[in-house]
Amino acid sequence: MNKQQLVDEIKRLKEEKNAVILAHYYQRAGVQDVADYMGDSLKLSRIAAETDADMIVFCGVHFMAETAKILSPEKTVLLPVAEAGCPMADMVTERKLTAYKEKHPDTLVVCYVNTTAQVKALSDVCVTSSNAEKVIRHYEGEKLLYVPDKNLGTYLKHKYDLDMEVWPGFCCIHNDVTKEEVEFAKSTYPNAEFIVHPECRMEIVEMADFVGSTKGLLEYVSNSDCQEFIIGTEKGIIHQMELANKDKKFHLLSENLACYDMKLTNLEDVYEALKNEQHVIEVEETIREQALKSLNRMFELTDQ
Length: 304
Ligand code: SF4
Hints:
The protein contains 14 helices and twelve strands. It has helices at residues 3-16, 29-34, 41-50, 62-71, 94-103, 117-121, 132-136, 150-160, 179-188, 202-205, 214-223, 237-244, 267-276, 285-302, and strands at 19-24, 37-39, 55-59, 76-78, 108-112, 125-127, 144-147, 164-166, 193-196, 210-211, 228-232, 249-252. Helix 1 runs parallel beside helix 13, helix 3 (41-50) runs parallel beside helix 4 and helix 11 (214-223) runs parallel beside helix 12. The structure holds iron/sulfur cluster. [4Fe-4S] cluster binds at residues 86, 171, 259.
């Protein structure tokens, strides 16, 4: 099948099966273009919970589809590529977190949404990069552990002077950004604003004109008077920035800002997932109920 035939077949199967396609901003442009909804991981999971569709095709990585399943247990949630995972989410395991909690029974666990259902189930509250600051401020004065992203955790800890331990995990894409890359981009595009995701290291965040989640960065470029930006996050986001801001210029900080797992999914995978109803995400019910508590606590604190 050529690309247009694939797109037509995806549309036909979607209607036949009452399915919706959700795609994260870091997906390939072709996948973004067939999606019914685009967003960050949490926005997509909320959409998954609210839609009348029976089937959700989640174009992203495993923890995202799993979060959708936690919020919508009655729906069929499909992840087009079964191996699409998040290396950072795998840096905190149920076993290690259980051992930590046994040694530190008075510490509250704050987990990033980039975690497995088992880790969410062991946590007191979940956060995303968009709402972490809002959530964490409710816990000022408490003993905290933040898992798994050391960069976002360190950023929050310093900004709010928190009594918070930070797990040593990281996103291998954002963590690899170097000062030299930023200095080079700034000298190449002197009129551009440098905007960055807080999964980058502190020394990089400190060089930025703006720090924000994927959603925050998208909103920032649309609202800013500046016409040119250096983008310090995963390259897939530039497709949506360009669609929404046709008169502005976007320069990717480094070609290394490409998430291997996010780029595993292509149009053929979306088609195969719909046709064969593969790969179905399941979460064991007791884990799901516990994980849902940490997500619901986040929603209570953020009114989302
Ligand atoms: S960009 Fe980083 S945090 Fe996001 S899925 Fe890829 S490895 Fe995980």
